[in-house]
Design a protein that fits this description.
It is built from seven helices and no strands.
Length: about 180
């Protein structure tokens, strides 16, 4: 048998390791793009929710105290910085708590619909609250998947993630108002 045959398994092993590393780097890239896309989708839904909160506050269907608290929470949520995820999560959670307090049950939701000039606003709010929940779940799932890949030894040792920052989940209370869930 010739002397060069022992090189064949070595070359095959190097090609397989290179293929694995290439596929892992591609997967990481796709996961980072998925995180970015889901983050934009979540930001869009949160902005829509705060805009609708401001519309509801100006609609005159809530009592004056609730109107002021709702408008303030919506404004704080709109101006919360994307750079500080903890403060953004707290601001969005506060807006959620205001919604929960403002529409505690189905009876209150029906009264608000009767008083509103556009009764579909509460249905829009219910839809947006559901989309916020889904967007946050998709984002957090993408972050968890990316973290799982980035914790692998070869990924860490060979810096396959490059200079991409460590991904963070969005932690916030996104419970829809109880008065809107029953519908």
């Amino acid at each position: 048998m010739p002397d060069w045959w022992w090189w064949v398994p070595v070359i095959v092993a190097i090609c397989l390791v290179g293929l694995y590393l290439s596929m892992t780097a591609g997967r990481l890239d796709r996961l980072h793009r998925r995180i970015e896309t889901s983050r934009y989708a979540l930001d869009l839904q949160l902005l829509r929710r705060s805009a609708l909160a401001l519309d509801l506050a100006s609609a005159g269907i809530f009592d004056p105290a609730t109107t002021v608290v709702l408008a303030d929470a919506a404004h704080v949520a709109r101006v919360a910085s994307d750079d500080d995820l903890v403060m953004r999560g707290l601001a969005e959670s506060d807006l959620t708590r205001v919604f929960v307090a403002a529409i505690p049950d189905e009876h209150d939701a029906d009264e608000l619909r009767a008083m509103a000039s556009d009764p579909s606003m509460l249905e829009d709010l219910r839809g947006i609250c559901v989309r916020v929940q889904l967007s946050r779940r998709f984002h957090n799932d993408a972050v968890r998947a990316c973290r799982q890949v980035r914790r692998q030894r070869l990924v860490r040792w060979l810096s396959l993630a490059g200079r991409t920052p460590w991904p963070h989940t969005m932690e916030m209370d996104d419970t829809p108002p109880p008065g809107l869930i029953a519908r």
